[in-house]
Amino acid sequence: MSVSLTSLNDNLISQLALEAFVLQMAPLAKFSTSYSADAARRGTVISVPIVSNIVATTAYPAYESADAGSASAAQVSITSYQKATIGVTDQQFHGSSFVDVEKFAFQQGKAVAKAVFQDVIGGTVGVTAGSNAFTSVTITSGASAFTVSSVRSGRATLVKNGAAIEDCVMLLNPDSFSNLLSDSTNLLANLAFGGDAIKEGKLPKVLGLETHEVSALPTTNNMLGFIAHPSAIALAVRPLIPQDNSYYIESRVVEDEATGLAITYRRHYAPANGTHWVSMESLYGYTSGITGGAVIWHN
């Protein structure tokens, strides 16, 4: 059965790519973000709200002076770009089912999101080893020495920096996460609270920290993982709109209503080589947020 790239299939293909994109980008939603389906040009500066350490006071009547904490905005330039394109030749077109195209679409969305994720993490918390922006902790023996004690120490550092620990998130590479699963202290705690580590291989929370195993965590500076407050990273994502749609059979922006995340979907046919080209792409920018908003482990 040959595949037919109709308008209906464009809907399905683009939605599958968006689904994978949103799924892979989920950990970044824990930070300070600005997601929108509104088009932006490269170089556009987006203001991303950053709120940290707001506390109440008894000052009265002081309605025109800020209390402790900060509510500011990071100026993020939309200068980064990621794209995934596949080509379907006439021969492949007539010998494939729509299921094959579905698989490609999901992988395309996932590939774009993975590239964005790695760039954002690698360009913020990933480059701070030895700098003063965030706290960098060296674990000499690497992931095999990563335990609950490592988490406890990192957690204490963030609390001392004034971070609300209930708002923080912990992302770990597979080796660090695996060693944390095998930590007897953590296993005993999980047995007492539903046994998620034993039954599901999951650690929903460790010492109050929402915890994620992330295979796409970049290896920048031998990073093992990190704990971060939402204000540690500011990220803006926008779709890239073609200047002229006349060349494309289909060109659209697909948006996830729940998160506001959007990617661009383009499809055109090149008669010179008998190939249908399908592209998924994202335009984005990022910057580090407040000083002291993250603890990074590396070896």
Explain what you see.
With 299 residues, this protein is of the alpha+beta class. The chain has 2 domains: 169 residues; 115 residues, hypothetical protein PF0899 fold. Strands 1, 4, 10, 11, 12 and 13 form a 6-stranded mixed sheet that branches. The protein has a 6-stranded mixed sheet with strand order 5-14-9-6-8-7. Helix 1 runs parallel beside helix 3. The radius of gyration is 22 Å and the shape is globular. The N and C termini lie far apart (52 Å). The mean pLDDT is 82.
Biggest sheet: strands, sense, closure? Answer: 6 strands, mixed
Query: What class do helices, strands and sheet pairing give?
Result: alpha+beta
Q: Work out the strand percent.
A: 25-35%
Overall helicity: 25-40%
Kindly give the count of domains. Answer: 2
Low-confidence stretches: none
Count of individual beta strands? 14
Name the average pLDDT.
82
Morphology call = globular
Q: How many DSSP H or I helices?
A: 7
Radius of gyration: 22 Å
Q: In angstroms, what separates the terminal alpha carbons? A: 52 Å
Keywords:
2 domains, six-stranded mixed beta sheet, 7 helices, 28% helix, alpha+beta, hypothetical protein PF0899 fold, 299 residues
Describe the secondary structure blueprint for this structure.
Layout: H1 7-25, E1 32-35, E2 45-52, E3 70-77, E4 80-89, H2 90-94, H3 98-123, E5 135-138, H4 148-160, E6 169-172, H5 174-182, H6 184-192, H7 196-199, E7 205-206, E8 209-213, E9 223-228, E10 233-238, E11 250-255, E12 262-270, E13 275-288, E14 294-298
Parallel strand pairs: 1-10, 5-14, 6-8
Antiparallel strand pairs: 2-3, 4-13, 6-9, 7-8, 9-14, 10-13, 11-12, 12-13
